[in-house]
Amino acid sequence: SDHMENIYGYLMKYTNLVTGWQYRFFVLNNDAGLLEYFVNEQSRHLKPRGTLQLAGAVISPSDEDSHTFTVNAASGEQYKLRATDAKERQHWVSRLQICTQHHTEAIGKNNPPLKSRSFSLASQGSANSPGVQRRPSQNAVSFFSVGHHRLPTGKRVPIMQPDHLVDVREMMSQAEGQQRDLIRSIECLPVSGHLTSLDQDLLMLKATSMATMNCLNDCFHILQLQHASQQKGSLPPGTTISWLEPKISLANHFKNGAAQNFPAEINKPASVREEQSVAEPCQLTREPEEINPDEELEDICDDKEDDLGAVEEQRSVILHLLSQLKLGMDLTRVVLPTFILEKRSLLEMYADFMSHPDLFVAITNGTTPEERMIRFVEYYLTSFHEGRKGAIAKKPYNPIIGETFHCSWRMPKSDVATDAGSNFSAHSPSEQVTLSKDLEGQTELDYYTVKFVAEQVSHHPPVSGFYAECVERKMCVNAHVWTKSKFLGMSIGVTMVGEGLLSLLEHGEEYTFSLPCAYARSILTVPWVELGGKVNINCAKTGYSASINFHTKPFYGGKLHRVTGEVKQNTTNTVVCRVQGEWNSMLEFTYSNGETKYVDLTKLSVTRKRVRPLEKQGPFESRRLWQHVTESLRDGDIDKATEHKRALEERQRNEERLRAETETPWCTKYFLKEGDGWVYYKPLWKTVSAAQTQQMDTN
């Protein structure tokens, strides 16, 4: 093949924390299936400093940057390498993958099939030992060939004897016992100290050992089927032997909602039957509903996601799921395990980005276009911290098509900054809660109200629309977001495709903005959230713009959650404000007049949203729709949560199928399609414009 040529060149190789990265000369030997490296090109005629067998290896581009990749050999040895640029990395990765595939397939062709393998390895083992242990010097080819015997041509292959399977079963029972002891030993470790039960390497060992035993049980089951077919003759035509569910009892830890057979309808809880029997949404009223803010009560829910909980117990399930995914795979249609869900819908998460409504309202109080743009940037950067519920990265519920979420915020007018430089409230979070309670007795003139509504307007692709307004200050924001999630190896990336529009009607200004990408990192250990990418904010009328960079952590060194940005006047190309810091802790704003302001997001006041009680919510409002899933997650009953979640998803699929059969289009409730975006049906800019026109006609 043209792609099987030998290639060579310099790459950086990571050695250890002390030595770091070093340039080494690498040679890909396609004929031998080897990756070798030397100190430099001049020493190429000498013995290689290191050699990896590529048969059975895994070549993985890193998601940390565009230059790094890893070569994981079947022996367990790993090379962490870095090319000079993305193009060179792609060249090496593609050639290595082709070579790896070629030699891995060659091993399968050159060894006898399952029915001609002897089980001498098993029969040689003692009662207490799993037989022959692998020597460190064994290469990948010899490792794959252990226990295989080549037979002279023409000799009949002996039929596998039952006692061989008994020996294998006995050895596997011993291995299962050892694996259980290993899990127990890890779980008995303390949660703090030098070596803890949450150690990353131990968690990986725990997950891979469980996955390995599951795979071995699958293989043993296939051998049993094959033995039965040899005893009774060939299997009937059309019969296939496929990978089955793990034979180790997984009742307590394989609960991802995708592979379970639930009880018959009569045995289901009434709440599940209710979820499945809700009428087709288009048959319900799709007329927009005016929500009275006076019916909403201050939210008392505080579901922080700081506990690993079931996630820590389900490592093998996550590993099982990851083994079925490919790099770059779209996760939109992948059913993820219930235990990784946080207790709120994605629509409510968008609302939580508005948890500083005083900063939002203060934008329009800026006396100049420059000040208003800076205030918007300040508000924008402070919104992401509260949008996350705790340090552990969990996934909000995927909204059902037609699902809606309503809430509002009230804040004393005295808390909203009017003059420059006083945007940030000095109240602590506890003081802010007291203030919000005091609002109950105030008159309407004493506080501002910000109303919020969100709706899932599309299922495939998953698109959400959300809208917020403050009528008193004649300002509103409209946005639509299409979430595209991809598997990136040891992390998951979510791209927020869409655009937002902030309208300040008192000034006739419109600000367009985008959203950063989000990444769930370390998904096999303690998952955490990272933001990345460049976003832009523009105001065409005033000529001011902002460019903000959310920096992902580099492979070696560097800070987490770093953000930098600048605000400039496009006409003169003058930078009027610079910002740096971390989006979830401390931000530093430096202005053109030399002044500097520091904002500690962990101490910034949070205004609790106001939500209608469940009994007053419609059947497709988020909290009522997902109430049984949320209650089950709070109780730690993953089985029950999975069952309720499955019922909702099955109902959505049935409704989608019915609409397709009857060619009935979906009817949105609050948002209308305009071009490539979605716009609230009654935005404030239309209401204010109509009122002004009517007033002019009256005059």
UniProtKB/TrEMBL annotation:
Assembly, per entry: Heterodimer with OSBPL9.
Gene3D superfamilies noted in UniProt: 1.10.287.2720, 2.40.160.120, 6.10.140.1150, Pleckstrin-homology domain (PH domain)/Phosphotyrosine-binding domain (PTB) (2.30.29.30)
GO cellular component: cytosol; Golgi apparatus; late endosome membrane
Gene Ontology BP terms: lipid transport
Subcellular location: Golgi apparatus, trans-Golgi network membrane; Late endosome membrane
Name of the protein: Oxysterol-binding protein
Task of the protein: Plays a role in regulating ADIPOQ and FABP4 levels in differentiating adipocytes and is also involved in regulation of adipocyte triglyceride storage. Weakly binds 25-hydroxycholesterol. Interacts with OSBPL9 to function as lipid transfer proteins.
Pfam families referenced in this protein's UniProt entry, alphabetically: Oxysterol_BP, PH
Gene source species: Oceanodroma tethys
Gene Ontology MF annotations: sterol binding
Main location: Golgi
Gene designation: Osbpl11
Similarity-based family: Belongs to the OSBP family.
